[in-house]
Amino acid sequence: MLADFLIAELRAARATRKMNQDEFGKLANYSGSHVSAVETGGRPPTEDYVAAIDEGLQTGGIYSRLLAKVTAYDDAPVWLRPWLEYERDAVSLRSCHPLVVPGLLQTEAYARAVMASGLLGAEEVEKRLGVRLERQRAVLDQDDPPLTTFVIGMAALRTGDPKVLREQLEHLARLSERPRVLIHVVPETAGFWAGQQGPFVISSFKGGDDVAFLDDHLQGRVITESSMVAALQRSWDVVRAVALPRDLSRDLILKLVNEL
């Protein structure tokens, strides 16, 4: 987990400088007992503490930036947090969504409308909205973003308040111009298709096994068992085969914009 990684990096920063905890604490105007509590997990590494370490070691703010990544998902449901790290570290993501625009591609207004349509209270909606927007930044706006491929059903592109939906479709058209964002639409002429059984995402990594994620009404679940991931990979091949090519999908999205 990223939190454990940050603590390990702070501990390593002290060890490589051959400093004990008291010496390391003085560097940042903290006590040695405070340093010990952070390194053993008894105290969280706060913004002030990490910023003081950055200043004392003249790191250029690297630990503060890492802390921001650690805390960005504090408001995410516990069951979702493991997947968020897989998602952020992926070199490619293959995502199938038959009924709703994928979260990574949602506008703020569209995401809020989707979340508010369920049983979540207003405060929880805003918390989860913040998590979703941070996920988008962490995945799509990083310096070296993963190759992301999305297959979206037509139902997702026709559902919603017209004003919100128009903004969402325009956003999809803009995102589709990015070289590493591939958006494919399944046309209505496809009839029944495999993706209608439910949304799923497959994440691939450098030198590691693929991991998948399934969503449902209660909570999503991370799939690491190789035979189950392989089954979803076969489903992906079928899903991708019925979707329109990238350029035709973008043309269709723009056509839907003009119809609103």
Automatic annotation (TrEMBL):
Q: Boundaries of each HTH cro/C1-type domain copy?
A: 10-53
Pfam families per UniProt: DUF5753, HTH_31
* Protein's name according to its UniProt entry: Helix-turn-helix domain-containing protein
What is the originating organism of this protein?
Plantactinospora alkalitolerans
Species lineage, top-down?
A: Bacteria, Bacillati, Actinomycetota, Actinomycetes, Micromonosporales
